Each structure stands twice: as structure tokens, then as C-alpha cells.
């Protein structure tokens, strides 16, 4: 067992739901002991902060850790430091990611059921491995499960600068599917548009310019729309859809409802669907299906279909700043942050450059 794993682990813990900066605290956990049958001991490297994590701490998410003393975190990359009896398929030194949500990844180390962790190869790199569980599989599933898309078809989405949005652009581009990408105006608009087009985006626009830009693009009306914002941004995507199109909502960053317009439903026969990776999709796939999805994503990274997201790493604590983890949430709250915020539990040894 490594020195890091042998030391008493620390974790962000909360006892009752609330805003993260108000209810979370960094606590020392009981020292780890040797893993038992079917168990694996892990040292965490990087753990992202996803919107679902924030909602979990707030008490607004269907899945949450047992309280009091719950450790949040639905996603994270860890290294195996010890394996218990009757464990197959995992070895000391492997990089692994969780196959189920709510494993509590905002910690430095822990002991878990081995069957709930999946090996990812080191050759895809830290950024890809640490963010492989939620965002890319969501993009892949939404592109495949709702509408039969063919080369030349079009998909429209808001939230295109998110990790899911960027994965949608890249996977669609690799399949000859066009994308209409609606983003908010921002100070670095030209650079953002250039970056998304470099990933394969066909049209990048704003709600205000959508009608004019879409007409000028010559792109066919999309069969599929993806919404992670809600409110006016969801309506903007809906307006672009072809007759019989489908709007899939997978997030609600604006905290505003998705309104199904009467004209869209009656005259255009638009279908309104929802997608939750950890819900019906995960239940239908089972552990083996989730393994297969992540293996598919690995091959997309290896082949160059996907590029790793940019990360903004933050330590849980430093000698100079014992509550450094708070800076991570300040970054999450910033507009146009331009990177996935992650907790870096390696003390900087992982060498993840800040975007």
C-alpha cells in the first residue's frame, strides 16, 4: 500500500443539504484498513465538479449519499492501491472510474466494492480519464437513442461550450452529422467560435442571431435538439426543429422550465423527451452496458474523434490555504469559465495544466 493510501484519508463531507460553501467541510476520515473480500482500495487523483454534484449537495438530485456524514462526488479518477480477496480484473496501479453514481469521489482515498469500478487505460491521459463517466456517454447516448440520425442530418443544441456540448460536436462530426450550436455572447466570442469550429461545429450562433445565421447557413432543419439550459434557450432550440423533431432535455442550468409551445406540438408535432444518464439509461444498460459505453469512448479518444476537455484543477487544501477547495466552487460559479473544474488530490503531482 502506498504512503498516500496508508495516511488517513480526507473528504469533503456534509450533514444536511444546502449550498456547497455553506454545508461542506473538509474532514479527516478513519484510517483505511486492508480491503475485504470483493473490495478494492483507491487513491483518488482527480474528481470533477458536475452540475449533478452541486444539485446533490443542495438536496435537489434523486441520488445522494447517506446523511449525516455524506461524501459527494459522482465521478472521479482513482488509482488502485490494494485489492482484497476474490477480486478479479483489477490490479494495483490500475486507473479506475466508477460504474455507478453517488460513490463519493470528493475524497483522497477509500475502500469500495470492486465490481463498481472500471479500468481505463493511462494512454488517454488524465483529463480524458477523469471526465469519461458522465459527459461523453451522455452525448453518445443522446445522439443514438432518440432519433435515427444519418450523415447529412442536423442536430441543434444549446450549452455547446459544455463538455457534453463539445462531445456532441465531435461525435456528430465524425459521423457526418451537422451541428447548430447556440451559445451565450461573451467577451472572447471570436475565440470561442473558432475553438468550437475547430472541433467540427458547422454553425455557432447566439439566440439573438439564430434565425438570421441559420437561414444563411443553408443547413437543413434539425431532427434532434438538445437542451441543457431551459427557459428561452430551450425555446430557441425548439424553434429550429423540423416537423416531427425531438427536443431532449438533459439539464436545467438556467433554473427555468421548459415550455412546450402549443404551435410546436400541434403544427410541428415536436416531441419533448428527457434524458438522465444515471436513471433509466443506466438501469437499461446495467454494469456491462456502462462498461461498453466507456470502452467506446476510450476508442474515440484513441482514434482522435474526441479531444480531452480543458481542466481547471484545484487542491482540496494546501499548507497556505487549508480551505483551498472553496476556490473550486468560486470558479464553478464564474461565467464562461472555459474549463471543467476538478479537485486535484495529487498535490499537483498529476501535472494537470490549468486551462
TrEMBL record:
<dbReference type="GO" id="GO:0141148">
    <property type="term" value="F:enoyl-[acyl-carrier-protein] reductase (NADPH) activity"/>
</dbReference>
<comment type="similarity">
    <text>Belongs to the zinc-containing alcohol dehydrogenase family. Quinone oxidoreductase subfamily.</text>
</comment>
<dbReference type="InterPro" id="IPR020843">
    <property type="entry name" value="ER"/>
</dbReference>
<keyword id="KW-0443">Lipid metabolism</keyword>
<dbReference type="GO" id="GO:0006633">
    <property type="term" value="P:fatty acid biosynthetic process"/>
</dbReference>
<dbReference type="GO" id="GO:0005739">
    <property type="term" value="C:mitochondrion"/>
</dbReference>
<dbReference type="InterPro" id="IPR051034">
    <property type="entry name" value="Mito_Enoyl-ACP_Reductase"/>
</dbReference>
<dbReference type="Pfam" id="PF08240">
    <property type="entry name" value="ADH_N"/>
</dbReference>
<dbReference type="InterPro" id="IPR013149">
    <property type="entry name" value="ADH-like_C"/>
</dbReference>
<keyword id="KW-0809">Transit peptide</keyword>
<dbReference type="InterPro" id="IPR036291">
    <property type="entry name" value="NAD(P)-bd_dom_sf"/>
</dbReference>
<keyword id="KW-0560">Oxidoreductase</keyword>
<protein>
    <recommendedName>
        <fullName>enoyl-[acyl-carrier-protein] reductase</fullName>
        <ecNumber>1.3.1.104</ecNumber>
    </recommendedName>
</protein>
<keyword id="KW-0276">Fatty acid metabolism</keyword>
<dbReference type="InterPro" id="IPR011032">
    <property type="entry name" value="GroES-like_sf"/>
</dbReference>
<dbReference type="InterPro" id="IPR013154">
    <property type="entry name" value="ADH-like_N"/>
</dbReference>
<keyword id="KW-0275">Fatty acid biosynthesis</keyword>
<keyword id="KW-0496">Mitochondrion</keyword>
<feature type="domain" description="Enoyl reductase (ER)">
    <location>
        <begin position="19"/>
        <end position="343"/>
    </location>
</feature>
<keyword id="KW-0521">NADP</keyword>
<dbReference type="Pfam" id="PF00107">
    <property type="entry name" value="ADH_zinc_N"/>
</dbReference>
<keyword id="KW-0444">Lipid biosynthesis</keyword>
Amino acid at each position: 500500500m502506498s504512503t498516500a493510501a496508508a495516511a488517513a484519508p480526507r473528504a469533503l463531507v456534509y450533514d444536511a443539504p444546502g449550498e456547497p460553501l455553506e454545508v461542506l467541510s473538509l474532514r479527516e476520515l478513519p484510517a483505511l484498513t486492508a480491503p475485504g473480500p470483493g473490495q478494492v482500495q483507491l487513491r483518488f487523483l482527480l474528481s470533477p465538479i458536475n452540475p449533478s454534484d452541486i444539485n446533490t449537495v443542495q438536496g435537489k438530485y434523486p441520488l445522494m449519499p447517506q446523511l449525516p456524514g455524506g461524501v459527494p462526488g459522482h465521478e472521479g479518477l482513482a488509482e488502485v492501491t490494494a485489492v482484497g480477496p476474490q477480486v478479479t480484473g483489477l490490479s494495483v496501479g490500475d486507473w479506475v472510474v466508477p460504474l455507478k453514481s453517488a460513490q463519493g469521489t470528493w475524497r483522497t482515498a477509500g475502500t469500495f466494492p470492486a465490481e463498481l469500478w472500471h479500468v481505463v487505460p493511462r494512454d488517454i491521459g488524465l483529463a480524458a480519464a477523469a471526465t469519461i463517466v458522465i459527459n461523453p456517454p451522455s452525448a453518445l447516448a443522446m445522439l443514438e437513442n432518440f432519433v435515427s440520425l444519418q450523415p447529412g442530418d442536423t442536430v441543434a443544441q444549446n450549452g455547446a461550450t459544455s463538455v457534453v456540448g463539445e462531445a456532441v460536436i465531435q461525435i456528430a462530426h465524425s459521423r457526418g452529422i451537422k451541428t447548430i450550436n447556440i451559445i451565450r455572447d461573451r467577451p472572447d466570442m471570436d475565440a470561442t467560435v473558432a475553438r468550437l469550429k475547430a472541433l467540427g461545429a458547422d454553425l455557432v450562433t447566439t439566440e439573438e442571431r439564430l434565425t438570421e445565421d441559420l437561414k444563411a447557413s443553408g443547413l437543413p432543419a434539425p431532427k434532434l435538439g438538445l437542451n441543457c439550459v431551459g427557459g428561452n434557450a430551450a425555446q430557441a432550440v425548439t424553434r429550429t426543429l423540423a416537423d416531427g423533431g425531438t427536443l431532449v432535455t438533459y439539464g436545467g442550468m438556467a433554473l427555468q422550465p421548459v415550455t412546450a409551445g402549443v404551435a410546436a406540438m400541434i403544427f410541428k408535432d415536436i416531441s419533448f423527451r428527457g434524458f438522465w444518464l444515471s436513471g433509466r439509461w443506466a438501469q437499461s444498460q446495467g454494469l456491462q452496458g456502462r462498461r461498453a459505453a466507456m470502452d467506446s469512448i476510450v476508442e474515440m479518444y484513441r482514434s482522435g474523434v474526441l479531444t480531452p476537455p480543458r481542466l481547471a484543477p484545484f487542491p482540496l487544501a494546501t499548507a497556505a490555504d487549508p480551505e483551498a477547495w472553496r476556490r473550486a466552487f468560486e470558479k464553478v460559479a464564474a461565467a464562461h469559465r472555459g474549463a471543467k473544474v476538478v479537485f486535484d488530490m495529487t498535490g499537483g503531482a498529476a501535472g494537470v495544466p490549468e486551462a
